[in-house]
């Protein structure tokens, strides 16, 4: 179970890192040109960059606390926050009729819920 939780957290961290880098460093106009980034057309630059920074923090929060052994409960807290972020993403993509992306966000939500559930109760990190 521990290995499955590490794999799930690693996958989510990779997704968060990719999304965070693109939202933080790619110009909003370039993001808006892609189908999945259509929502950025009506969003402010500051909002998009803030989401990017939150995703970068999530990538770190899903891995570093456990690896460093400093407040490993933060992995579960980060996973819960990712669940909330994915709810917002699902609502946003649903409004644009992007149901494939809604399903993808649902998969990310399920992975994050698995990590939160596993690290809070079933397989918490032990010091």
UniProtKB/TrEMBL annotation:
It comes from Pseudonocardia zijingensis. Its main location: membrane. It is a multi-pass membrane protein. The keyword Nucleotide-binding does not apply. The chain crosses the membrane at residues 56-87, 99-117. It is found in: Membrane. This is DoxX family protein. Keywords: Membrane, Transmembrane, Transmembrane helix. The keyword Ligase does not apply. InterPro entries: DoxX.
């Amino acid at each position: 179970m521990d290995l499955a939780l590490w794999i799930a957290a690693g996958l989510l961290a990779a997704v968060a890192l990719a999304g965070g880098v693109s939202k933080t460093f790619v110009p909003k106009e370039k993001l808006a040109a892609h189908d999945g980034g259509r929502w950025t057309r009506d969003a402010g630059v500051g909002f998009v960059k803030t989401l990017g920074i939150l995703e970068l923090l999530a990538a770190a929060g899903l891995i570093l606390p456990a690896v460093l052994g400093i407040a490993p409960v933060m992995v579960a807290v980060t996973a819960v926050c990712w669940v909330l972020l994915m709810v917002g993403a699902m609502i946003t993509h649903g409004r644009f009729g992007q149901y494939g992306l809604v399903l993808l966000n649902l998969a990310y939500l399920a992975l994050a819920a698995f990590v939160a559930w596993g690290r809070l109760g079933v397989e918490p990190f032990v010091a």
